[in-house]
Amino acid sequence: MQTGLGLWTAWGAMALLIHKPMGMATYPTIAALTLIYAAGIYQTKTARTMSLVLLLATISVWLYAQKPSNDRAWQDEVAMQLVHEIQGDVVTIQNVRNFEWISETEYVPRWQTRQYDLAQLDSLDLILSIWSNDNIAHTLMSFGFADGERVVFSFEIRKEIGEQFSSIGGFFRQYEMTLIAADEKDIIYTRSNVRGERVYLYPLSVPKDEMRALFLAYLQAADALRHTPSWYNTLSDNCTTAIFDLWRSVRDIPKDYRVLASGRLPEFLMDIGIIDGSKDPQANKSRAFINPKVQQYHHQNPITSHDFSKKIREDL
């Protein structure tokens, strides 16, 4: 009982700390919450416990009453949502992101309309971007076409102006989720060449009909998020779990802890035959590492989108 109440108290304090619903008055409220639990201000244990439970229940109701929205002051890179139209095999996507990144805070914003012929869809690549812990990666999927077109889909937190990413905040309804469609030179380059993250690209062995079904599932997910905004959750609804929710709608994929430990996804996909498992996993990882292939490029020594996509696939 006491352990559960202690965890609930910590959860309630963290929810208040992240959202600060009372502004600066939030801090003394958290202090009072802690004192009620730790020392008590009532004469009986039962009274103290019931008061704490009532307060925590109020915090819980308040937090889960928060509604996601698409109407906020968004940061530029997540300001737009993709809109699509399908005519036969041709998909037209509005708001494909193709920013020119100079630094993490300097960029030329570009949102473009592009067309993709699903009859020419012929490749699917997994991209992992690791910024710290090797077990945790941001996960993206890149679809390639025989005519040279490519588009990357990425589930992302939709940060408001002034917000910073916090994995803890992702447990407490701090961020909405969005789905970005982007040029590889934008969404991969900014991770490998601007932020200095370690980026890996793995070709996937997937039938073309499955690629097509997954592509269309992404478009349906974009429609759903545009019409019904949703919260990002660090554990249950993140950049990787959202992909596998879509993928399982078109293919039977077993549940595996490595979907949560996303830095280990290549091992999982090798085990089920989606990544070539005939090669040594470490050798596979070395070949997949794109940073050395493109590290010489920056805004004063630029590279075209076509050449960037070609370079990151060398020796694969």
From TrEMBL:
Transmembrane segments: 25-42, 49-65
Domain Lnb N-terminal periplasmic, chain residue ranges per copy: 108-262
Keyword presence, Transmembrane: yes
Keywords of this entry: Membrane, Transmembrane, Transmembrane helix
Protein name: Lnb N-terminal periplasmic domain-containing protein
Biological source species: Moraxella porci DSM 25326
